[in-house]
Amino acid sequence: MEQEKPSSLPLRKGRGATSNSDSHRFNHLAREADGDWLDHCENLDGESLPLRTEVTTEHPKSILSFNKSPDIPFDRSINAYRGCEHGCVYCYARPTHAYHDLSPGLDFETKLFAKPNAATLLRKTLAKPTYRPEPIAIGTNTDPYQPIEKHYRITRQILELMLETRHPIGITTKSNRILDDIDLLSELARYRLTGVAISVTTLDHQLARILEPRAPTPARRLDAISRLRSHKIPVHVNIAPVIPAITDHEIEALVATAADHGAQTVSVIPVRLPHEVAPLFEQWLEAHFPDRKQKVMSIISSMRRGKKNDPDFFSRMRGKGPWAELLHHRLGIAVRKNGLDKPHFRLRTDLFKRPAVRGSQLELF
Question: What are the beta bridge partners of residue 173?
Fold first, then answer.
């Protein structure tokens, strides 16, 4: 896909956001760098060093979050990490960094938080006599298989607990690093306790590099789908987000390719721009697609009731208006054509075994 000539906005190699504004909903003070001073430093020291990824460990008191949202198919979720190094500019989770008085921009993809005691906390929750099992979702906010998982292995520890307790878990990721846990996933799938959703936004490698700079390439994600299916692990492909005038032309090709690699079901979600994501996304358009920026934002506005974002249940996931309806109509045709119009797989909850907690009387049995 031919791209417009980038603008003069500053870009960080390997990063998605083009800025790190500290002006957000919870901080009304903003600092502005002095251009003369930056130019002086660059003349003395050369080009600024690449941003380094920093990880802070945190120890929350609880790990399982519950929700009552009527438009999502789960009522509980786990986030092993805060922030995400993949750097997807469109990520709707970026505004969560503002709660830490950090920027939803570059801070979100460089200043990360890991929760090494996640599995221990989850064990205590599952052991409560009042706990009733339902599928847990992991990866719905930040990716559980982002690069730092290689070191912390928090997601793997959670999967080990899921297998021990026969508890269902659904996983969403855009990383082929999930294959590191294919042994656990195969066992979970054997008991119908897991399903994996792989996010694929584009088949264009060059576009993926600027859209999701530190996420695995589309080819690696497609290979992960094939390998997961070869181990009889259910796989759903989520074409999300679909960006008008940038990626929407790929819908039919994405569905066909997903089917060729063994995916069983496919869905789409139009791009969402909550809170600080909207200005970050517009800056990204200005940097990479300046000639298309107005068109993209106009179509997004037409889907979001004249605004940049629509937070209402159901419409936030589907969009409204002719463009959104056409998108879902095209998906329906492509899904039927490729034989993917099957019911979504359901996970079992009847195999659950309450875990023992160190120091409890259950350890005696």
Answer: 198
